[in-house]
Design a protein that fits this description.
The protein has 543 residues and is an alpha+beta fold. The protein has 17 helices and 23 strands. The protein folds into four domains: 69 residues; 81 residues, PDZ domain (Pdz3 Domain); 209 residues, 2-enoyl-CoA Hydratase, Chain A, domain 1, CATH 3.90.226.10; 124 residues, no CATH class. The protein is globular. It starts with a helix and ends with a helix.
């Protein structure tokens, strides 16, 4: 009986605090109390009566996880251990090895190694799979494996990894260094200044500010701020970067919620560095959150021309809420809005497809807003550039292909089979492209392909219903699908090659080399220079 009361008390406490907070408690008190009572009673009955022994903690974790999945991917629950690990890692006492790690299916794959940081110094490369950390198997450590890579400053960690089937061990000395937010800044030959910003870390605005100051001293004709592939970060850093180019007292972004306390305006606090220097911002479908705040604000204020592809569309704001026993809830509390009043959120998590995925806001339902000069801009789908490059309606297949592990794996394969002393004349050949096409139809890269999934589901349905004479038709359909995909790849050859070449250059010359390569080869950077140099084009876009 004591065990029952203890379980019931813990459950009620956790669930109550998941749903209720002093600031966010809504007017449906009875309904919340009713559902809490139902859930706690159900939880008790399952744990007390189920045929096998249950684990109340695991059941609770599963129920919370599935409940939050109904909201959005950014609202998450962290248990006491997760919170403590995060606290230690963020305290500055613990540092990493200077690499980005992807943890999936109990595997640790190095995604990127940063120049001159610990992982780089011992020769680790993108694509290496870490299988042991200080003698402990990654497969046994499971989801906690990444935490063992971090440790106190100047301590060492032994890593066993596999590369191209060969196993090696290195000892990495952890160092208190982080990658630069601005990996490349350069004054181009035609007088244009180029700044690549790939993260909104706590030093982002200061690094951009220093770069802009040097360009103003050098009398740059204009500035290109490259936010492509920048996933975002600290909102305050985004506001400070906008402040470099717009007056003090200007609203850069607002947050709006059903709860008054969460409504907030983020306003510039200082005098700008320059109100006049021509400015171009580059974005693409991987530019998200803080990147979209910068691009959206500068577009709404007619302070910059935006060039590239429509951004990701992440317009949701999260806040951490403490829960009992050291656990924590990260909950979406509001939405971001640009100065004109646009919400940049692209996916509607309140409406789902049959497979549970969120619905993208229909373009026909987008609302028109006006910039400072009266130009028409729209909400509901990220930031749409003033100058769109490439195919405006790129196929979902190509988009998924470029976001799949294929590009990463292809770059690793190329790196391990080719030497490259300089990227000055680097170009992938037709044979290289044909190899990519061959790899693109490999089954392991098409597991999540909706078209193939639909065909496979239909085959299963027909098989269950005893209809077995359709195989020849499915073979024809699969062949036609494969040929159609290869045609789409050919049609998007330039875009694909640009992605492949950038990823390959990063293997040899790090992120700094990738941006330097883009400066001399990238069509969007060329377009940005053209827009600024031809002053009439720049001015007409902003009128």
């Amino acid at each position: 009986m004591k065990l029952y009361h203890k379980k019931r008390g813990v459950v009620l406490g956790i669930i109550a605090l998941l749903f209720i907070s002093t600031t966010a408690y809504k007017n449906d008190y009875f309904e919340i109390a009713k559902q809490l009572d139902i859930f706690s009673t159900l939880f008790k009955e399952v744990n007390m009566n189920y045929v096998d022994e249950t684990n109340p903690a695991e059941l609770m974790q599963a129920s919370v996880k599935h409940m939050l999945e109904e909201l959005d991917p950014y609202t998450t629950y962290s248990n006491e251990q997760d919170v403590e690990r995060a606290r230690i890692n963020q305290s500055g006492a613990y540092v990493g090895i200077g690499a980005t790690i992807n943890a999936t299916k109990n595997k640790l794959i190095i995604v990127e190694v940063y120049k001159d940081l610990p992982a780089d110094k011992v020769g680790l490369k993108a694509g290496d799979e870490i299988i042991e950390i200080d003698g402990l198997s990654v497969s046994e450590l499971k989801e906690s494996a990444t935490q063992f890579l971090n440790g106190k400053k100047n301590t060492k960690v032994s890593l066993t990894y596999v590369r191209s089937g060969n196993e090696s061990t290195v000892v990495v000395a952890r160092a208190d260094k982080t990658p630069k937010a601005v990996p490349v800044t350069k004054l181009l030959e035609n007088g244009m200044g180029y700044i690549a910003l790939d993260r909104f870390s706590k030093t982002a605005s200061k690094e951009v500010e220093n770069a802009v100051k040097l360009m103003l001293i050098d009398e740059a004709q204009g500035i290109i701020l490259d936010l492509r592939n920048n996933p975002g970060g600290l909102v305050q850093e985004a506001v400070k970067i906008v402040n470099l180019f717009v007056p003090k007292g200007q609203i850069v972004v607002s947050t709006k919620s059903n709860i008054e306390a969460y409504n907030q305006n983020f306003v510039t606090q200082k005098q700008p560095l320059s109100l006049d220097i021509p400015l171009v911002v580059l974005i693409n479908q991987k530019s998200a959150s803080a990147s979209e705040i910068v691009a959206g604000a500068l577009q709404d204020l007619d302070r910059a021309v935006i060039i590239g592809k429509r951004s990701f569309g992440k317009g949701l704001v999260q806040r951490f809420k403490p829960l009992p026993y050291g656990s924590q809830l990260k909950v979406t509390i509001s939405r971001y809005y640009t100065p004109s009043g646009r919400c940049i959120q692209a996916l509607d998590y309140r409406n789902r497809k049959e497979d549970g995925s969120a619905v993208r806001y229909n373009e026909k339902e987008h609302t028109a807003f006006k910039t400072k000069n009266g130009r028409i801009v729209y909400d509901g789908g990220g930031i749409t550039p003033d100058v769109i490059t490439g195919d405006k309606n790129q196929s979902k297949f190509i988009e998924n292909l470029l976001n799949s592990p294929l590009v990463f794996d292809y770059a690793n394969l190329y790196y391990h089979n080719n030497s490259l002393e300089s990227f000055d004349d680097f170009k992938l050949s037709n044979n290289d492209f044909e190899l990519f096409k061959k790899m693109s139809v490999d089954e392991k890269y098409n597991k999540n392909d909706k078209s193939q999934e639909g065909i496979n589901n239909m085959k299963m349905i027909l098989k269950k219903e005893g209809i077995r004479d359709m195989n020849p038709s499915f073979e024809v359909l699969n062949t036609t699908l494969r040929e159609s995909k290869l045609k789409l790849i050919d049609l998007n050859k330039l875009d694909i090659l640009s992605n492949l070449e950038g990823e390959i250059i990063k293997r040899y010359f790090y992120r700094e080399g990738m941006y330097a390569y883009f400066i001399s080869t990238d069509a969007e950077i060329f377009k940005a220079q053209e827009v600024v140099i031809e002053k009439a084009i720049y001015q007409n876009i902003l009128k």
